[in-house]
Amino acid sequence: MSPVSPCPRCPQCPWCLHCPHVPAVPSVPCPCPQCPMSLPPPRTGDTGVMPGPWGSPRWRCHPCHGGDIPGQRWPDPDPCPCPHPCPLFPSLIPGVPKPFTEVIKANIGDAQAMGQKPITFLRQVTALCLYPELLANPSIPEDAKDRARRLLAACGGHSAGAYTASPGIELVRQDVARFLQRRDGVTAEPGDIFLSTGASDAIVVLGGVVTQGTHTRGATLDVTPIPGLGATRCPFPRRVPTKGPLCRGCTPMSPPGQVQSRQCIEDVIKFAYEEKLFLMADEVYQDNIYAEGSAFHSFKKVLFEMGPPYSEVVELASFHSISKGFMGECGFRGGYMEVVNMDPAVKQQLAKLVSVRLCPPVPGQIVLDTVVSPPQPGDPSYDLFMAEKQAVLSSLAHKARLTQEIFNRTPGIHCNPVQGAMYSFPRIELPPRALAAAKAQDQAPDMFFCMKLLEETGICVVPGSGFGQREGTFHFRMTILPPTEKLQVLLEKLSSFYTKFVKEYS
């Protein structure tokens, strides 16, 4: 059998570690640092550069390089690209009979891929901006047309196809600032706001500025779902090695689905202050609050209500996105980052790094504007907009309760209330024989369970080991986004498989 190109996946990819079809002498070295086909370790004094196939220098993915790529893991890997029958997962090969009719991608928070309908006003304004001839269409509400004209007037050449300023359209940044001021009761400046290709891209850009140097300290919130987490006091942030003085907060939390209390956020801010850490607040799920008595508290609002010295010293960047919430516009790639108390010299470098990326996608900026400045009472689009928004959020709240109820009926599965966000994060008990079988496959136990689940049922979930779960515990992350009827079948099917799995390995 002829060899194929090495697996190009990430460091924790199980396929490039085990696939027998990786060539013994690849023509192109596999970029995965744990793959046996990867480049050799550096020699003493190695600079991290070695001659390429044609004598040119080629950077390699190695810890001596300035980046931390080898240590990163992505919990949603794509299927193995090797076209040969794989001895690990034979039932996933095309043409091989499968015990299921479809693969259910319950691993990602892609609402519209799961059947959620777009919000009409968002799409009308976007369509008008991309095809202005629709402005003559009498069936489109006038407030949508007015918004489109306003946005087009702020674009170069009155066209959504033109580059914008690197931090984004100034008009949209002003609308974001007004949104933040209404939300928090705290002044927000357009100059502190950077529009982005989704929240994830903003985090990457900011990381390129604040993680330089030789710092090796940082922290993240413990994401292991603890009963009542966020209802009273927050657990002390867990130290993790990072390439910079960072502290990450997230509310509602993903994946556990808990909503942080105000006291919890205060504790995080105090910790960042005491440790002199830059605080990054992931707030993309701020609209996704389901539990009665839970509420969204922005890090910025809490920071300024705490007053000096915290409000004057703690450096904060908060992130929001059009991909989550009630919008679910993942493919448009839109979001923003607001920086607070950032050192002017660092902010200047951030602006420089942003400018290298030219500008965020204009359609994403347009959608973002409709989110932060939605129709108001009395506008022609208001009633439909509110009805669609409430329908999405009510459906998600119902599915959050349904997920908890069905999982908790199954012995060995423990699911905390899904108070917010778009995922459940059940803890599962795995028998010793399953742990031994996983070790024999060189896999984390919950990865072993998730792959067996995929292979036998077609249900794709994410192992908790990709999220830094507490040692000795096992979880999986599953979205609550599928339609209610499909979600119920999925939950019952998954619960039945778990019972069968435990029996098989007991």
UniProtKB/TrEMBL annotation:
UniProt GO cellular component terms: cytoplasm
Reactions catalysed, as given in the entry: L-alanine + 2-oxoglutarate = pyruvate + L-glutamate
Classification via InterPro entries: ALAT1/2-like, Aminotransferase_I/II_large, PyrdxlP-dep_Trfase, PyrdxlP-dep_Trfase_major, PyrdxlP-dep_Trfase_small
CDD domains the record matches: AAT_like (cd00609)
Domain Aminotransferase class I/classII large, chain residue ranges per copy: 250-494
Gene Ontology biological process terms from the UniProt entry: L-alanine catabolic process
Pathway the protein takes part in: Amino-acid degradation; L-alanine degradation via transaminase pathway; pyruvate from L-alanine: step 1/1
Known cofactor(s): pyridoxal 5'-phosphate
GO function terms (MF aspect): L-alanine:2-oxoglutarate aminotransferase activity; pyridoxal phosphate binding
E.C. numbers: 2.6.1.2
Assigned protein family: Belongs to the class-I pyridoxal-phosphate-dependent aminotransferase family. Alanine aminotransferase subfamily.
PANTHER family, per the entry: ALANINE AMINOTRANSFERASE, ALANINE AMINOTRANSFERASE 1
Described purpose of this protein according to its UniProt entry: Catalyzes the reversible transamination between alanine and 2-oxoglutarate to form pyruvate and glutamate.
Name assigned to this protein: alanine transaminase
Source organism (scientific name): Otus sunia
